[in-house]
Structures are given as structure tokens and as C-alpha cells.
Amino acid sequence: MFRAASKLSTAARPIFSATFSLSKPVCNSTFLSQLSNTKSQKIRFFSSSDVFKASPVAVEMINYALSLARSQKSDESYAQGLLVLEQCQSTQQDDNSKGLVLLGMSTLFSERGNYEEAIEQLKKVKDLAVSSLAIKVAASEALVGLHLELGQDDSSSVLADICLQLLESVKMETGSGYGDGVLDARAKALKGLVELVRGDLESSDLYFQGLEGIKGNVALSYGGFLHAKQNFPMAKELYEKVIQGATETKDLSDPHNFAAGNMALEEVLLAATCSLGQLEAHLGNFSEAEEMLTQALTKTEEHFGSRHPKVGVVLTCIALMYRHKAATERSSSLLIQEGLYRRALEMLKVHRRDIVALARGGYAELLCVQQNRKAEGEKMKKWAETAWKNRRLSVADALNISEPTSKVPVVDLRISRVL
Fold it and tell me: Taking the CA atoms of the chain, what radius of gyration do you get in angstroms?
């Protein structure tokens, strides 16, 4: 029972010291209009077996740069990784390879919390004569994901629409579309995720219908939708499929795995593990839930470092699991929950506002049952209710899920949002 709680001491270790730059980027209209103008450049289309044409040297350098940056998880190691990518960018002759490098740079910036720079790298893809549609879709997917993480839902919706329009224009131009439908599925799932975050389950359902051969981000987003709808068996099947697929391969030639920023394969694996842990808790399988969430915590610490805000997101999920377990079994874990919430709130940043509100709401209820801390709890509870922006459920709904008819909160670790 206490395996996950014991990770608190690990979460406190200062593996790296970093200042996370979370200044708000602006999704400017010029960029949006240029991205949507697909007729300005002639696009060549490849089959799924030739989803992008990039220099093998560029791919090797990107992999090396990512490994170098993550080796120490320090300002210096990330700077070294970015330097390798900048050198790679300057030596490439074809725009597909340059576009691939930009996706890698965006991934490193986003991992360090510098979302403004991550978004700028993705915007640069539009200025290249990129012939690979997969690169364009990956850039759009990452842009939407980063804007969702920043709470800029309207910008995310516009960008998702543009991605859909891009693929529709391909169908009109070629008369037959492209490849095996993987990119079309990714674009639809991207829009479905946006609608899910905005609380419109009916609209989200329309975009998830008819997806075939779903893997990776598509399966994870669809799983989140089914999870929110409480179709637990199908959601669990999809989460497990994502984990298995991400564990078995990291082949960039697979269009399911081709992504950047917070939509990259590593983040998809972490998010699927965290989502499966939440689902097991919602099913009342607390031993399995603890195991999966502890795995998610360990892997998130390994990937980002123990002080990264996304570690705080996972800690919040673990605290909620203990809360649900205590309510179901009529037991108490107040000290464990309080420790988890406090550590989570130390790591979370302002742009993860609904996760902060969820953590503070859970913490507030712990304080309210203690007579000498009730006033403090009421104040924190009021703040959480004011900060909460989720349209599908209230803070109270998200915290009180013991009843069979209750709505369940689903935390998507990729975007640090409650679905």
C-alpha cells in the first residue's frame, strides 16, 4: 500500500536545477493563415512505407542529441543537445531533414518547460518546402498539444482545424488521399482531443468515430475519451495497446510514432501508463493502480528529472488514488495524501492550473476535516473552485467519485489537463 507514498523521498531529490520559462506564446493569425494556405507550395505525398524522406545522418544526429540532452537533465546537457541539433540543421540540404531537426529541437525545449521556444521551432516548419505530409502533421499535433498544455484552448482548436483542412485539401488535389489513413486518423483524433478538453463529449465522439488501425497518440486520445465516458474495458484495452506499442518500437518510419513536443513517443508512453493507473483506481483495483502509478512516477522522474512539474501531475494522480481507496474501503490515509499533495503543489506551475486546482481542492478537503485547520481548508477550497475551468465536471465531481453514477476525472499527462 505504501510503495507509491515512499516515492515522495525520491521526488524530492534535486537531480537538476532549472528555471522553467513559461511565458505565454501568442498563436498569431499570420502564422495560422500561412499554415492553412496549402496551395502556396506543391506537396509531394508518400505512402506509409515512405512516410518521410530525411537524411539517415540527420536521424542519427537527432537521436544522439536527444540522448545527450537527457543524460544529465541539466541546463548544460540540454544546451549541448540543442547545439548538436543546430549544427545538424546548418548542414542539411533538404527541407525534410531540416523539418525533422526542428521537431527534435521543439521536443527538447518543451521538456525543459520553454514552451515559447518549442512553439517557435514548430512554426518554422511552415517556412520550409517540406514535402513530407507526416512532418507537417507532426508539427501541427505538437503545436496543438503545447497550446493545450498552456491552457490556450481556442488557439488549439484553430490549429486542429487547419490540420484537418490540410489533409482535406490533399484528398481534393490527389483524388485519392495518401498512405493508409494514419495521418487522417491523427488529425481527427487531435481535434477530438481538443473537443474533449473543452468538455464537449458529443463533438469529440464525432471525430473519434471510424478510426482504424489506431496506435500511439490516436489510441491514447481515444482511450481518454472512452475513459471519460466510463467505457472502462475499451479504454483499458487501448491504454495497454499504447504501452505495448511504445515499449516495443521507437521506429520513426512508423507514422504512428512520428511526433514532437509533448506528443513525442516517450511522453505518450508515460501518459498511457499514468492513465491506466487512474483507470485501475476507478475500477477499484487499487493494488494494480498503485503499481501502474508508481511506474509512471518512476519513469517520469527518470525522463524529466525529479523536480519537473509533470512529476507533480503524477503525484496528484497518486493522491487521488489514495483518496478514492480510503473512501471505498472506509479507511484513512490522510497523512499520505497530505504529503503527496504538498509535494505535488511544490512542483506544479501556473500553466497547469486545473491540475493545481485539483490538487489544492483535494488538499483542502483534508484540512477541512481537521478542526484546527478548517479555516485554512475553506480558503484553499474557495481558491480551487474559482481557478477550476473544466466544463465537464466540477472540482467536487472530480474529487468525489465513489458513487457508481459519478463522473470520473481523467488526467492526461501529455498536456497536464483534466479531460
Answer: 21
